[in-house]
Amino acid sequence: MRYAIILKGMPLNQAEAKLRSVDAQNIKPKPAMKQIFCDLDPEQAAALSTVAGLKVKEVKKVSGSQWITAPHADLVSTQAAGLNLYEVYHELRQAYIPALNGAGLTAAVLDSGIRESHEALEGKVVHRANFSESPTTSDLFGHGTGVAYIIAGEKDVRSGVATGAALMNIKVLNDDGEGTDEMTVDGIDTVCALVSAARVHDIPITDPMYPNTINLSAGGEDDGDPDNAIRVAARTAWEEYSVQVIAAVGNEGPGLSTVMCPACDPSVIAVGALRTWDFVISPISSRGPSKEGLIKPDLVCWGENIEVASHKADDEYDLKSGTSFSTPILTAADGLIWDLTRRVYGEHVRLTYHDWLQYAYAYCVKPDIAPVEKDNTYGYGMPAISSMVSQVLRPVSPLSGVTESITPIIGIGMLGLMMAGVARAI
């Protein structure tokens, strides 16, 4: 069986020697992630579990879930054909000179691969790696392509959110949409290694080869253990490499304590899904609390009938649903806000959701039926770019490059046409 050995104070060389002493096989150290993967039989694992400075965890399954949807019967507006993110974000982007497009964001998409030849994704991928057992980084499962499109896709009047963002195609799910803790940790480790290389060579954080965000629209079961291999890697990515991990909570709702790992971790921005047509939580969106009692999700966003690029052909599009597709909307929205922030405060400034969450009550919205405080269904709510932009622009003069029509335009930017009258500011 495959195990993750989490280093809890024991130096790496001593841990490797200990593994060899019990005849562990296929030893693969991940020093930056503070863990080692290896093959053990149950007796070997039990023996190592008694060793101080080590934590032994069986490698578990990770998967990405989704479903292809038809328009909901209750839809009577122009959204009936699905949520076209170009229509939602176009006016917001065009309210700036030059247009706001999220340039500077490099999102590492840890997923089932990307159909890079799709007309809306050509030239968007700057790096690729494959940690699955599938032979290529292409997407035969039909998950990662949609996620990538939502972040940065662009083709005429179809687009994602941050059209100027760069993508990294890090395949950690196979062609059946399944992976393991180890594959995911491999992906996170690769992203952090790229950050290290960029720092050594003084590459700016806005360079396409400097990944600054991980989008993880997949996960495994929350076992309540902060030493879970993926959680350790995600915390390391944030705390030591300043790479924020934005992860889907999963589609196991409406039951309580169904949030996936690593979305259950405090260091990870956990995203749930809203029904697009009425701004109410999707019944399938996983709920908190985590097995440790933490309130999750952190944020929510639209997650049903989202238009995405298809993995089946270079000019086809699908409608898909699930927290897998609400997550990249917020990954990309972070890029738009960061783009604007740099214009106002300079290239050295980097705000992430970790910074914004300290003031979430001021810029998130929920339906009237939701509690005012953070809760285990909506979290803080859905980020309203209108509120966030007003904070970024507060000290700026009228000559900042923002057009005179910015106020009403931003008002519809993130909230969208379907939210009028059903949400309130928190």
**Low confidence ranges:** 70-80, 396-426
Number of strands: 21
Task: Give the N-to-C terminal Cα separation.
Answer: 49 Å
Structural class, judged by helices and strands? alpha/beta
Strand order of the largest sheet: 8-11-7-13-14-15-16
Biggest beta-sheet profile: 7 strands, parallel
Number of helices: 11
**The CATH top-level class label of the largest domain:** Alpha Beta
CATH architecture of the largest domain: 3-Layer(aba) Sandwich
- How many domains in all? 2
Please state the overall shape, judged from the principal axes of the Cα atoms.
Answer: globular
Query: Would you tell me which CATH topology of the largest domain applies?
Result: Rossmann fold
> Helicity range of the residues?
25-40%
Strand fraction? 15-25%
**Rg calc:** 21 Å
CATH level-four homologous superfamily name of the largest domain:
Peptidase S8/S53 domain
- Give the rounded overall mean pLDDT: 88
Q: What would your notes on this structure say?
A:
The chain has 426 residues and is α/β, with parallel strands linked by helices. It folds into two domains: 2-59, Alpha-Beta Plaits (2-Layer Sandwich); 63-387, Peptidase S8/S53 domain (Rossmann fold, 3-Layer(aba) Sandwich), CATH 3.40.50. The chain is 27% helix and 21% strand. The protein has eleven helices and 21 strands. The longest helix has 23 residues, at 323-345. The protein is globular. 54% of the residues are buried. Residues 70-80 and 396-426 have low confidence and may be disordered.
